[in-house]
Specification:
Blueprint lengths: L1 H24 L5 H13 L5 H34 L7 H14 L2 H5 L7 H10 L4 H26 L3 H10 L1 H34 L1
Helix pairs in contact: 1-2, 1-3, 2-7, 2-8, 3-6, 3-7, 7-9, 8-9
Length: 206
Amino acid sequence: MGHVIYLLEHYGYYGIMIALIGGIIGLPIPDEVLLTYVGYIVFQEKMAYLPSLLCALIGAFCGISISYFLGIKLGLPFLQKFGPKVHLTNDKINKTKTLFLKFGPTLLFIGYFIPGIRHVTAYLAGINSFSFKKFALFAYSGAFVWCFTFITLGRVLGERWRYVAFYIMKNKMFLIPAAVLILGVVLFVYWKKKRKNSVESKEVFE
């Protein structure tokens, strides 16, 4: 995590893009922790929310697209030969292939929320000759939901972001749906509170 913090501290918004491109291609970068930490930086007002989200999206789009085109041009032998060097093991490749048979292109969307799977989905989409239109529809929409979820979660939780990061590292498979659920609850409570304050203000003026 130290090298990720270094990137953000020295390169700011560009650091978000660089880290996510590398993380999605397959480098050992804790992507969810990174995004949650970005949300915390936004909470501290060291970065702005929308530019941070935009840079995260650019990084995710670029990383997933590079993987897709590598899959098209170089195929499965390339992934099997060089994948293990960036932690894309044959076990992960085979597991993702099995999930592709079950979920099809939908895996490009939900794959972001399954650690170890999102790194392989785009390669396999390219290898299986998915059209770019189909790939972009599922992969880019999934990237948006993923980036929005964790950056907003870090922003909303503020100082408590470390607990989320710790839980992500210890319980990766179980935190992802939990993070979405927590975010939904937090945003609902925030919306309800804001609406209540708005109604009270309106009553005062009346």
